[in-house]
Amino acid sequence: MVSVKKGKNASAQSKPGRSLALILIAIVALTGGMFASGNTTPRLGIDLAGGTSITLRAVAEPGQASAINKTNMDTAVEIMERRVNGLGVSEAEVQTQGDRNIIVNIPKGMNSKEARAQVGTTAKLYFRPVLATGLSGPGMNASPSAAPSDSPSGAPSGEATDKATGKATDEATGPADGQDGASTPPSGTPTDGATTQGRAVTGALKADTSPSASPSGAASPSPAASTPADDGNAKLQAAYDALDCTKESQRAKAGEGARPGDTTLACGTNSDGLWQKYILGPAEVDGTEVDKAQAVYNTQGAAGWTVTMKFTDKGAKKFADITGKLANNQTPQNQFAIVLDNEVVSDPYVRQALTGGNAEISGSFDQQEAQSLANMLSYGALPLSFHEDSVTTVTAALGGEQLRAGLIAGAIGLALVIIYLLVYYRGLSFIAIASLGVSASLTYVIMSLLGPTIGFALNLPAVCGAIVAIGITADSFIVYFERVRDEIREGRSLRPAVERGWPRARRTILVSDFVSFLAAAVLFIVTVGKVQGFAFTLGLTTLLDVVVVFLFTKPLLTLMARRRFFASGHKWSGLDPTALGAKPPLRRTRRPAAGPVDPKEA
User: Fold this and answer.
1) What whole-number distance in Å separates Cα of residue 371 and Cα of residue 75?
2) Could you say which DSSP state residue 108 is in?
3) How many Cβ atoms are within 10 Å of 33's Cβ, its own excluded?
4) H or E element: which one contains 204?
5) What are phi and psi of 87, to 5 degrees?
6) Contacts of 147 (CB under 8 A, 6+ apart)
7) Crossing angle, helix 531-548 and helix 460-489, to 10 degrees?
8) What are phi and psi of 378, to 5 degrees?
9) Residues 38-80: pLDDT tens digits?
10) 385/490 Cα distance (integer angstroms)
């Protein structure tokens, strides 16, 4: 009988309980995390849970092919997410697929026609004068005011406000610093806490070139500077009073149906993250008239991250006109709002006409905020639109039927594998079935955790990938079992056969799993849409196969080899030497003792 060499290898194999304890701890920890997070089932995709999946393809205008790039596609995704969220949809998914496709998955319970109309249109960006503004929320629905408080910003002392100045002046410190035409707020001004603060992504606006003198008549308030109440627009006044921007449903309808030339309502957030409502005048500059916007780090005057804008010739003239009209008005009517899809993303104020065709928005930006605002400004000018390639609508009933069909197919496949193992491997099938159970448990728990973590959704192709994985996992067990049986056929007992068969089986298993994982990775990279679900599941289960074989199947077989039922080669163990056609046990032959040679033999 061939004995196993003692040493480091033998010592490691004599303690298989360590590997089994390790994988048991991992299963318990992952399962505990699953229950602690409350995500006890995998997140289902649109084709199983029901809903609408829209595939949009980016199309550039002639001569503008470079507009389709990662930055602009990411900005489009951000805009579409805001639109979908504005419709009150929860758990919607908007993501890029490939270099020019965007997939919008909207769960059941929503009007798909409305969703398609929202996400498929090009973003609308406008520069509108601010007529009135105030904080929005319960207890804050007072009438709009052109001058909210004695503070130039209408905000508590020390809070950040939007600031404007020309490049030739010192760093701006606020509208009150030398503001021409500043006056005491009119009597009767509401003091309901209304502010003129913009979002956290707003800041000072200043020209990149020294501005010329304000146009003649700029000191006179523009007609748009009067409040809707002064114009007798009671309907708009009432709508403003009733608007609560803290509610998604009201934010989505604010300014709905307004044309560029209309006075409208809008919502936004200030630097403290509080919702703010606006009455805005007709659009003075279109977003398509912004030639370029980018985030830059300005080291002069410790300005930090800023957003620079360059207008087209037509846009530069319009921008000079509107800043000239607003310059000498009182707060908030010296502000203009940058409005994207009826939401205010910035509301800086001006102190003089900016005629250079360039402007810079600065303030307490970090890099991400500056880049986000720059992308939004750029997107309003992009020659980029989206064509609807496909729309798939699945009812909840149909999705449930597909899920049941997938589960039945998986159960049938698993049953056939188990029957084969029982018939062919007998006692060894216990180890294989236990390994399949461990692999299935890990797969289920990890899929449940990946839903809220990375947004993984189990769709029908992913279910197919899990079914295919049953065969891949079973194949690894078969490779190892056959190596062990080959060693027994050579005349070795079970324990040496388990250890000698493992190195060769291990190489085969690793090569096989590497090929499967490589195929899954390539498929995931080069495909779009639901096929990626199949590739992701196949890759995940292939990695788990390696973990289970190394940390569970091999240690468990090592332990079972010490049991009499397997070690003695019982006929139901699957390791019966007689049934396997084993050779006689390998034994050492003794040499004859030295002595006189028989003359007859000589």
Assistant:
1) 10
2) S
3) 13
4) strand 204-207
5) -85, 0
6) 154, 185, 186, 189, 330, 331, 332
7) 30
8) -70, -40
9) 888 888 877 777 778 888 888 877 777 788 888 888 888 877 7
10) 70
3-class SS at 144? coil
Which residues is 173 bridged to in the sheet?
A: none
Instruction: Round to whole Å and give the CA distance between 530 and 316.
Output: 46
What is the Cα–Cα distance from 504 to 483, expressed in whole angstroms? 7
d(CA 175, CA 165) in angstroms, rounded, equals 9
Q: Do residues 547 and 435 lie in contact, with contact meaning Cβ atoms separated by under 8 Å?
A: no
* Residue 229 three-state SS: coil
| 103-138 tens-digit pLDDT | 888 776 555 666 676 676 666 788 999 988 888 877
* Residue 158 region by backbone torsions, left for phi larger than 0, else alpha for psi between -120 and 50, else beta: left
Topology match between the domains 11-45+395-580 and 51-118+388-392: no
**C-beta of residue 533 within 8 angstroms of C-beta of residue 593:** no
β-bridge mates for residue 81, sequence order = none
Query: What tokens appear for 570 in the block?
Result: 């019982």
Residues 280-306: tens digit of each pLDDT: 999 989 888 888 888 888 877 666 888
Domain 11-45+395-580 superfamily per CATH: Multidrug efflux transporter AcrB transmembrane domain (1.20.1640.10)
Distance CA 146, CA 151 (A): 13
CATH fit for domain 51-118+388-392, picks 1.10.300.10, 2.60.40.1180, 3.30.70.3400, 3.40.50.2000: 3.30.70.3400
> Please, are residues 194 and 331 in contact by the beta-carbon 8 Å criterion?
no
Contacts for 163 with CB less than 8 Å, ≥ 6 apart: 172, 173, 174, 175, 203, 204, 205, 348, 349, 363
Residue 502: both structure tokens together? 């493992």
Q: In the chain, what are the domain boundaries?
A: 11-45+395-580, 51-118+388-392, 124-179+192-363
